[in-house]
């Protein structure tokens, strides 16, 4: 369990990195800022859990993604967010729900038969 | 396939249900680069794509027969093409390396029945992404290369051996060096598997660094791209560069973004093999024009 001080320390450390990474891709460390909701997403052949991510318009969240088997991708093109998900590591992306609607996300690293069906939806209300 | 498809029927098919699509820039006053070195005579080639040998499913109850029918259809052409190109996904993916090689061997044996001796291959992600092209190279050789034919410079780009759908810096450097000697009005045709532009990224119909390849091609005035991957025809321009995708030989996919999921279109028993087919491309190097005619797998 992270303490508030740890979060503040990490936030300071990562402020520069976030600016460099851009497009919401922020490396493999967990780094939710104060008040940001963290949503854990598990990827395995050939689905994500949860497959539906519900957000409120204007909300900024951090997705912490892990893979249970092989290297996967997470790509939500409507929010310009993507990352690789390497087994054994947590990949984190920050995403701001700046518009309402249903937006697809998908695996963009070919992972086998069923890869084409591996995706989910971000619902912003 | 009882009767050969003659040239007149080509055009009839095109007029009834196919497409004739002229691509490229017409009326160049002079030739340059490789275009001036060859006979520059008109010729044609055939594009086959996405046969997914090894696939099994309700969307094609004749999965073991469709590729063979396509081979027979090409063999029945009255005039045989100069060459045949397969734009990837020759086989359907499998996690089992032994099964992958078995499928590639079977595919190679089936297409070995083609009358045309000159065949060009490239991988799709189903062939190459799980082992970075290792098995593919054992059976088919290099995954990217170029060749010249009758005044046209053909370039094969591999955007699948990297499972993240990238061409990669090494291959892009090779592409830059390959293009460098060419005159800016050279006739260039690119074969690749995935679209080099963002056709519909939500369905993974893109190449992550495809824009870099397009940028390298952009200075050349006569460039046309033929690709596969999306299991349907699509015609798109990036600036002056035309991109033409081909039908599949296993199952058709829906138009980009036309439905929530990228699910194969169901088999229609009333119209078997609907949406499947292959393409003839007539190249006219002097005018830098390409005429496309689409053929069904089986005459209806």
The appropriate CATH architecture of chain B is 4-Layer Sandwich
Strand content of chain A: 35-45%
Total DSSP E strands of chain B:
12
Order of helices and strands of chain A: HEEEEEEEEE
Cα distance, first to last residue of chain A? 30 Å
* Cα gyration radius of chain B (Å): 18 Å
* Structural class assignment of chain A: mainly beta
Unreliable stretches of chain B, pLDDT < 50, 5 or more residues?
A: 1-20, 24-36
Q: Label the overall shape of chain A.
A: globular
Structural commentary:
The complex is a heterodimer of chains A (125) and B (300). Chain A contains one helix and nine strands; from the N terminus they run H-E-E-E-E-E-E-E-E-E. Chain A is globular, with a radius of gyration of 14 Å. Chain A has a single domain (4-124), classed as Sandwich (Immunoglobulin-like). Chain A is mostly beta strands and 125 residues long. In chain A, a hairpin with a 2-residue loop joins strand 1 and strand 2. Chain B is α/β, with parallel strands linked by helices and 300 residues long. In chain B, 22% of the residues lie in helices and 22% in strands. In chain B, a hairpin with a 2-residue loop joins strand 5 and strand 6. In chain B, helix 6 (169-179) runs parallel beside helix 7 (210-217). Chain B starts with 6 loop residues before the first helix and ends with a strand. Chain A binds chain B through residues 71, 73, 75, 77-78, 84, 104, 106-113, 115-117, 119, and chain B through 92-95, 125, 129-130, 160, 163-165, 201-204, 208, 261-263.
């Amino acid at each position: 369990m992270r303490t508030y001080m740890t979060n503040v320390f990490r936030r300071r450390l990562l402020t520069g990195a976030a600016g460099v990474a851009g497009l919401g891709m922020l490396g493999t460390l967990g780094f939710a800022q104060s008040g940001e909701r963290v949503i854990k997403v598990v990827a395995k052949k050939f689905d994500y859990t949860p497959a539906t991510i519900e957000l409120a318009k204007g909300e900024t969240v951090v997705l912490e993604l892990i893979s249970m088997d092989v290297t996967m991708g997470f790509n939500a093109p409507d929010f310009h967010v993507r990352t690789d998900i390497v087994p054994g590591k947590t990949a984190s992306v920050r995403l701001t729900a700046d518009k309402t609607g249903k937006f697809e996300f998908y695996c963009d690293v070919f992972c086998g038969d069923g890869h084409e069906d591996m995706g989910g939806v971000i619902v912003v209300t | 396939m009882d009767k050969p498809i003659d040239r007149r029927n080509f055009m009839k098919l095109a007029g009834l249900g196919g497409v004739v699509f002229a691509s490229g820039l017409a009326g160049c006053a002079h030739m340059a680069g490789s275009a001036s070195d060859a006979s520059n005579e008109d010729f044609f080639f055939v594009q086959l794509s996405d046969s997914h040998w090894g696939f099994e499913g309700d969307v094609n109850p004749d999965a073991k027969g469709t590729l063979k029918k396509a081979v027979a259809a090409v063999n029945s052409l009255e005039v045989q093409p100069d060459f045949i190109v397969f734009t990837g996904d020759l086989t359907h993916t499998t996690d089992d390396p032994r099964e992958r090689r078995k499928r590639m061997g079977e595919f190679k044996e089936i297409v070995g029945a083609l009358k045309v001796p000159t065949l060009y291959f490239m991988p799709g992600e189903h062939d190459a992404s799980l082992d970075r092209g290792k098995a593919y190279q054992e059976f088919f050789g290099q995954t990217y290369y170029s060749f010249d034919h009758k005044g046209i410079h053909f370039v094969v780009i591999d955007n699948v051996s990297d499972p993240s759908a990238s061409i990669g810096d090494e291959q892009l450097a090779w592409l830059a060096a390959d293009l460098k000697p060419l005159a800016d009005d050279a006739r260039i045709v690119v074969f690749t598997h995935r679209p080099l532009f963002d056709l519909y990224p939500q369905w993974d119909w893109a190449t992550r660094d495809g824009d870099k390849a397009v940028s390298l091609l952009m200075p050349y005035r006569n460039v046309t791209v033929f690709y596969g991957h999306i299991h349907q025809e699509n015609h798109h321009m990036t600036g002056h560069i035309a991109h033409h995708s081909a039908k599949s030989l296993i199952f058709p996919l829906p138009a980009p973004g036309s439905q929530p999921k990228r699910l194969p279109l169901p088999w229609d028993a009333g119209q078997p093999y609907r949406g499947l087919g292959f393409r003839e491309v007539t190249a006219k190097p002097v005018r830098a024009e390409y005429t496309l005619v689409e053929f069904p797998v089986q005459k209806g």
